[in-house]
């Protein structure tokens, strides 16, 4: 499978490095609005073709899948462009600015009979399956509550404070605790309560979120772009609890009984960067004629965006153009 990278920023470099180590996927093309940047990227990361415009790359008939890694506010436009050109698409999180955009993209993908997937890599990592199996075996009994946080001091990154680029902690890092909670408790969310601290530009720099799920389950979540956190997820059950070390890139899972004894522990599988799992999921889905990846179905993409829409509504945050 030949993959085109739309955008040539930091995360694009990580994807290119991943593709260079994969067997069934080629880092075939990269596009940037700056052709020199694209050429330098291609030379450094062993990408066969470099394009100075996104449209030009999407006209290349050899490309099977396009990885979109531009700022959040541009995801809708760029995914629609990919689909219009007949390309399957894997788009970085957060999928779009809002749920309405997500619904339109997914509907167009179905109309064009093309795969549309979100690159929320925690949904695809093998440790997600390990957690699923622990919960299915009822090692901690019935899970009733969880906490999760993800904070990095990244406020200095210009796009994160720019409302026009859909900046803020929520869409950049807050999406991970929300996904973690939904991977554990499902998507039947009954109430959403929250608060945030805003930047001078009017986007959230730190937030606190409480979700209650069907079955009297509660998730307490936090994200921020001005501090460092332990990035930990904890799941509390009737017979014990689980420590999930680093919800953004699992470094281990520890399981404790009700007497606080460590009863099970797991370490991550060896991998290239972790990005290979989402790419491979897309490759298999395309081969099988599927329009979505089972690891992150379209219904979940929309639900996550709806949750974040509700949160921003509570905070009085609207992006330009909404």
TrEMBL record:
Keywords (alphabetical) are:
Oxidoreductase
Highest taxon, organism lineage: Bacteria
Query: What InterPro entries has UniProt attached to this entry?
Result: Gfo/Idh/MocA-like_OxRdtase_N (IPR000683), Gfo/Idh/MocA_domain (IPR050984), GFO_IDH_MocA-like_dom (IPR055170), NAD(P)-bd_dom_sf (IPR036291)
Q: Where is the Gfo/Idh/MocA-like oxidoreductase N-terminal domain?
A: 2-116
Enzyme Commission no? 1.3.1.20
Keyword Oxidoreductase set for record: yes
Q: MF terms per GO, please?
A: nucleotide binding; trans-1,2-dihydrobenzene-1,2-diol dehydrogenase activity
Q: Name one Pfam family in it.
A: GFO_IDH_MocA_C3
Q: Which residues form the GFO/IDH/MocA-like oxidoreductase domain?
A: 132-243
UniProt record similarity statement:
Belongs to the Gfo/Idh/MocA family.
Protein name, as recorded: Trans-1,2-dihydrobenzene-1,2-diol dehydrogenase
Biological source species: Sphaerochaeta globosa (strain ATCC BAA-1886 / DSM 22777 / Buddy) (Spirochaeta sp. (strain Buddy))
